[in-house]
Amino acid sequence: MLLTEKTLSSKDIFNGRILHVIHDEVELEDGTTSLREVVRHPGGVCVAAIDENGCLLFVRQFRYPYGEVVLELPAGKLEKGSTPLENGKRELLEETGAVGYSYISLGQVYPSPGYTDEIIHLYACRVRSVGEARPDEGEFLNVERIPIIKAAEMVLNNRVFDAKTQIAVLKAAALLQSGKI
């Protein structure tokens, strides 16, 4: 099997500030057709920043779709004209006031490949300094420091629900334990 689909038609449903929703008709390998609803997204970045005490910098913020406060690593959407790493450094500074160094890539994740083309770039770094956070307009959050071992336990005990945060915490903890960070 080739495992491909051919787009037969595409219709714009919504084009917003962040998301673009399309409705496509596709031809499957066996010649039948099906419909696909796709959310186009510019992509994102997430940073696991480790301070001198082995703590990760987290943010808590209200997430409207869930109607609750969510614990996350600093993250944000990619801005045109900047690399994912530049975006990660910007988000870390804006959300926590931290400046990082010794950045390493933790890879990329597809958060929900069934309906969106979003790719999130993950990084880990060490924290050089922490100043005043400068969140975006309309962004309200609290910064927390959590020891990386405790953060990994929180992920494993289902106390961290954000997928990008779970992945970055576990990868950073494993790399820190192996001496690669």
What would you say this structure looks like, in words?
This protein has 181 residues and is of the alpha+beta class. It has two domains: 6-40, no CATH class; 44-177, Nucleoside Triphosphate Pyrophosphohydrolase. The chain is 20% helix and 44% strand. The chain contains three helices and ten strands, in the order βββββββαβββαα. The strands form three sheets. The chain has a four-stranded mixed beta sheet with strand order 7-4-9-8, sandwiched between helices. α2 (148-156) crosses α3. The N and C termini lie far apart (41 Å). The mean pLDDT is 96.
From the structure above, extract its key features.
single chain; 181 residues; alpha+beta; Nucleoside Triphosphate Pyrophosphohydrolase; four-stranded mixed beta sheet; three-stranded antiparallel beta sheet; 10 strands
